[in-house]
């Protein structure tokens, strides 16, 4: 049986948990490389419009602000969920995780609507190099958020069935790291893909 160190936070109490969390940090390093490559591609193609729509013609700041507000608020609520976890408050943890996922689902909903709007405006991946890099970058991020929602739902189910244990705490902590990472990526997308092209 794994040795448990109760002097540490619940998610760090076993050596296996500590190794799993370290491994996930390494995985996030690979994710940083992935998104850095997509940002670099977009940066080199951002002015290649091929006669298609430009950012000034496409982007609607209000819609992008709603997406940003939803995702950044979800990062805060995810932090509140971990705060409840550290206090062994299972009900509070599950409640705030559900709120986090609802906000994340709202973000995905608005992003899908944004993409539909662009397609109706004649802006598709085939239209220009700018739009190809734009859709790949945002689509990759949106896919990650969608995967995160499904992943977190499975963890909430485990929490409801098994309660707070070092294992369920570790899984919850890891999904929180993933969620915060996606929020940081979105800040870069909002700043360099949207805001820099609209001001």
Helices and strands, with pairings:
Blueprint: H1 15-45, H2 55-58, H3 61-86, H4 90-120, H5 129-162, H6 166-198
End-to-end distance, in Å?
A: 59 Å
Q: Can you write the helix and strand succession as a string?
A: HHHHHH
Q: Which parts are unreliable, with pLDDT below 50 for 5 consecutive residues or more?
A: none
Helical segment tally? 6
Rounded radius of gyration (Å): 19 Å
Describe the structure.
The protein is an all-alpha fold and 199 residues long. Helix content is 80%, strand content 0%. It contains 6 helices and no strands. Helix 3 packs antiparallel against helix 6, helix 4 runs antiparallel to helix 5 (129-162) and helix 5 (129-162) packs antiparallel against helix 6 (166-198). It is elongated. It starts with 14 loop residues before the first helix and ends with a helix. The mean pLDDT is 93.
Descriptive key words:
single chain, 199 residues, elongated, mainly alpha
What does this entry show, briefly?
The protein is mostly helical.
């Amino acid at each position: 049986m794994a040795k448990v160190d109760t002097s540490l936070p619940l998610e760090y109490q076993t050596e296996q948990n500590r190794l799993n969390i370290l491994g996930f940090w390494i995985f996030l390093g690979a994710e940083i490389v992935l998104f850095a490559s997509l940002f670099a591609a977009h940066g080199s193609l951002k002015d290649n419009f091929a006669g298609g729509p430009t950012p000034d013609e496409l982007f609607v700041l209000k819609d992008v602000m709603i997406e940003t507000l939803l995702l950044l608020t979800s990062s805060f609520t995810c932090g509140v969920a971990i705060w409840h976890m550290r206090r062994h408050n299972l009900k509070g943890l599950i409640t705030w995780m559900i709120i986090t996922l609802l906000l994340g689902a709202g973000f995905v909903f608005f992003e899908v609507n944004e993409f539909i709007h662009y397609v109706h405006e004649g802006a598709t991946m085939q239209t220009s190099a700018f739009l190809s890099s734009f859709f790949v970058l945002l689509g990759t991020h949106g896919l990650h958020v969608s995967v995160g929602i499904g992943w977190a739902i499975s963890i909430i189910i485990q929490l409801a069935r098994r309660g707070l244990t070092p294992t369920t705490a570790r899984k919850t902590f890891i999904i929180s790291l993933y969620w915060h990472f996606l929020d940081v990526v979105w800040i870069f997308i909002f700043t360099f893909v949207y805001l820099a092209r609209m001001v």
